[in-house]
Amino acid sequence: MHVNRGNPAGQEVLVDSWPEFKMVLARPCREVARDPSDYFTNLYTAFYRVEGACRALLGNSRAVDCGQAFQIEVLQDGVYETIRDIARARGLEMETYPYRPLLHPDPPAMPQYRPDKGLSLAPVSPAHAMLLNDTWKFGGNSWSLRYLSLLIRHFPNACLLAPEGTPISWCLTNPLGVLTHGYTLPEHRGQHHMRSVVGMLAAQLHARGFPVYTGVLTNNEPSLHTLQRLGFRILPGVFYQLVVRPGFAQSQPASALDSAQDPAPSSGERPHTHST
């Protein structure tokens, strides 16, 4: 959704044939996919009309670089099985994260909750990237810090600030427009702060013409209940996040970075976390 809006993540779009196509693949441009171990930046997603075309394109080494670590986010049946089979055949490691997909059918009707006294809604600041990295299930390393910094700078987000200016609850969106890294600090839980944050973020997304959707890990019942109370509906199927690696790779700890710079986006046209 962001490819024709400045393309801040540096994505490109491939099809199996033109002008009649049966498969669409979004992937990082070469200028962006510079680190072969950075599966955060090396983000793919796939959509198909004919499953055979999907298998053929995903199995093409010129379309998907299996010599690099990458992640692919998919919802349609068959893509998970295709990537699984490719990983097995080529001796690749694959981590599978299944999510329940949720969509809000009418974002303007979402309840808007005012923050408690002394708290304020605001965009997430790049200065808070380290805090978000330290609290993220997939964080704690240099790749994730760079990725979160990209999301904070270029994609819609919202947070709830304490009086001293520290975020206590927040939610981001990824390059696919998915609500991701929804989190409330443990000492502030049980006060429904996420309702205010998601309400503000949903309004931003709707104003841009984006759907308001996300995925929740299958064992994350608290997040699921919060979103359902806000009017989100569970969609059929499974939203998969698949992380594929050619072998073990080590990242620097985030603290070793002098700064978390965005990967250089390509100027060419190109179109993730995921989620709570």
Folded structure, characterized:
The chain is an alpha+beta fold. The chain folds into two domains: 1-97 and 240-248; 106-230, Gcn5-related N-acetyltransferase (GNAT) (Aminopeptidase, 3-Layer(aba) Sandwich), CATH 3.40.630.30. 23% of the residues lie in helices and 25% in strands. It is built from six helices and twelve strands. The chain has helices at residues 51-58, 79-90, 129-135, 142-154, 193-207, 221-229, and strands spanning 11-15, 23-28, 43-48, 70-74, 93-103, 120-122, 157-161, 167-173, 178-184, 213-217, 233-234, 239-245. Strands 1, 2, 3, 4, 5, 6, 7, 8, 9, 10, 11 and 12 form a twelve-stranded mixed β-sheet that branches. β8 (167-173) and β9 form a beta hairpin. The two termini are 20 Å apart.
Secondary-structure blueprint:
Elements: E1 11-15, E2 23-28, E3 43-48, H1 51-58, E4 70-74, H2 79-90, E5 93-103, E6 120-122, H3 129-135, H4 142-154, E7 157-161, E8 167-173, E9 178-184, H5 193-207, E10 213-217, H6 221-229, E11 233-234, E12 239-245
Parallel strand pairs: 3-4, 9-10
Antiparallel strand pairs: 1-2, 2-3, 4-12, 5-10, 5-11, 5-12, 6-7, 7-8, 8-9
Helix pairs in contact: 1-2, 3-4
